[in-house]
Amino acid sequence: MSASWLQRKRKGELLDLAREANVPDAEGLLKDDLVEALQNHLGANESTYGKQPSFSEFYRRGSPVKRERSSPTDALVATKPARRRTIVKAADSEEPTPEKALVTRTPRTVSRVPSRISQVDIPASPAQLAEVADQSFQAAKTKASELWDKTRIEEFVELARENASSVVFIQLAILTIEGIGLEWNTLKSIWAFDIPAVPALSLNTHNVYLPDLQLLLTSDFWAPATLWSLTSWVLPLLVSYFFNLTLRSNTRHKSSTRQYTIDPLTFNIVRAVLAYSAYHIPTTNPGVVGNPGPVAGSTPGWGPFAEGTVRTVRENVPGEYAGLQIASFIGVLLSIYDAALKK
């Protein structure tokens, strides 16, 4: 019989048949209810599912609808479902107690749990857990790499490193430090305003000082700035442009990587000589003045610049006179090292 064919199926197979036959609300039915629903649905739609291979066995064994239609008397009897006949017979017997009903329903309820658990994708072993964790880590690593590439930080770092690894950049950095230090010390700070106290935050009154920009209109600012510019980069640039030793050393191999428009070695040598001639403090022989130890002589001006201007530059440049000579010495060493690497 077709009902026995459905009864021999497992619930998972019945669910597959119910999905294929589009039986509504099949997931929540028990096996007996599912068999009954499939039997009624397939019997009512024989013209739709009769030719499908999945249900050929059901119709070959004979659908209940065909048997019901063969006998009018059987059709009258079939109007009463078999499950209801069982309930009517059970009414004559002893009424089941709540304890018995609970016992009879418990196995069916428990039998539904494994089918639900099988639908949840949970790793069943430590190896699978480790594999899932590794896949999650790789996915997060890939996403982080994509975000990092979009920032283009590595490109900026490489560009800054490439430009900073040169004699020209180091020389510009030294000149920038000297110029900023000189202007910072030359422009005196004056009181601008006060920040009021905030008792709730335990903050006291704070005085704010800003550079006196009025000095930009006087010679007290421009005279030291002009003297430092002439001795630190204007005259050295002019001399090193005409006395460029890299041009002579590059006559056989015309390579732009070995040639500078301004010779860095000549630039730093001229810079050191000019710093010595302008900012060096001469000393007097102690035998002349009659006092032990060297005695500082007078500090005259340098060319058209007065003694006060020379003193301002010497005392306000970072490292003072020694700082100027150390910067020139570093430039000479870097120039020689760079020339040796390019040979």
Give a count of the beta strands, DSSP E runs of length 2 or more.
Answer: 4
Silhouette: elongated
Cα separation of the termini = 100 Å
Report the average pLDDT across residues: 77
Structural class determined from secondary elements: mainly alpha
Number of helical stretches of at least 4 residues: 18
| Major beta sheet, strand line-up | 1-2
Q: Main β-sheet: number of strands, strand sense, barrel status?
A: 2 strands, antiparallel
How many domains, in number, for the residues? 3
SSE topology string: HHHHHHHHHHHHEEHHHEHEHH
The low-confidence runs, each spanning 5 or more residues with pLDDT under 50, are 64-82, 85-94, 98-120
Which range best describes the helical content: under 10%, 10-25%, 25-40%, 40-55%, 55-70% or over 70%? 55-70%
Radius of gyration: 50 Å
Approximate strand percentage: under 5%
In short:
This protein has 343 residues and is mainly alpha-helical.
Provide a descriptive summary of the structure in words.
The radius of gyration is 50 Å and the shape is elongated. It is built from 18 helices and four strands. By secondary structure, it is mainly alpha-helical. It has a two-stranded antiparallel sheet. The protein folds into three domains: 118 residues, no CATH class; 33 residues; 175 residues, no CATH class. Helix 13 crosses helix 17. The chain starts with a helix and ends with a helix. 15% of the residues are buried. This is Rho termination factor N-terminal domain-containing protein. Keywords: Membrane, Transmembrane, Transmembrane helix. It comes from Aaosphaeria arxii CBS 175.79. InterPro entries: Put_GTT3 (IPR038872).
